Amino acid sequence: MTRVFISYSHDSLEHKEWVFQISEKLRPNGLECSIDRHVNGFPPEGWPLWMEEQIEQADYVLLVCTPLYFQRFKGEDTAGGRGVTFEGLIITQKLYDVFNHNTKFIPVIPETGSIDHVPLI
């Protein structure tokens, strides 16, 4: 089964629900889709190792690109969102390791988004 991980920022409750609905729509279509909301409480290994494992094991990683996601991916928002910042470091390293030959990381731009919020991947 194809594995998909969704990297996103918790912009708002509505945004979190929108991302959750995306994951739920992908699941019955033959994709094993993973997001943090599928974890009950905290993962036993901790969030950093969980995120790293999700990215490593995924065939594809969807990056839901919003202004806040972009800021956190770049490490420019220190008020919160450490998950996206950490995921951004892992994703950047993975791209560096494969000489920026990207076949795994797919930007998703919400209706209210812009291509300007897509990290250089």
Layout of helices and strands:
Elements: E1 2-7, H1 13-26, E2 31-34, H2 47-57, E3 60-64, H3 67-73, H4 82-97, E4 105-108
Parallel strand pairs: 1-2, 1-3, 3-4
Helix pairs in contact: 2-4
Structure description:
The protein has 121 residues and is an alpha/beta fold. It has one domain (2-117): 3-Layer(aba) Sandwich (Rossmann fold), CATH 3.40.50. It contains four helices and four strands. It has helices at residues 13-26, 47-57, 67-73, 82-97; strands spanning 2-7, 31-34, 60-64, 105-108. Strands 2-1-3-4 form a four-stranded parallel beta sheet, sandwiched between helices. Helix 1 links the parallel strand 1 (2-7) and strand 2. The protein is globular and about 35 Å long. The model has no long low-confidence stretch (mean pLDDT 92).
Question: Short description, anyone?
Answer:
With 121 residues, the chain is of the alpha/beta class. The chain has one domain (2-117): Rossmann fold. The chain has helices at 13-26, 47-57, 67-73, 82-97; strands spanning 2-7, 31-34, 60-64, 105-108.
Spatial sequence of strands, sheet with the most strands: 2-1-3-4
- The domain count comes to 1
Mean pLDDT: 92
String of helices and strands: EHEHEHHE
CATH architecture: 3-Layer(aba) Sandwich
List how many beta strands DSSP finds.
Answer: 4
Query: Cα distance, first to last residue?
Result: 25 Å
Which stretches of 5+ consecutive residues score pLDDT under 50?
none
In DSSP terms (H or I, runs of 4 or more residues), the helix count works out at 4
Strand content: 15-25%
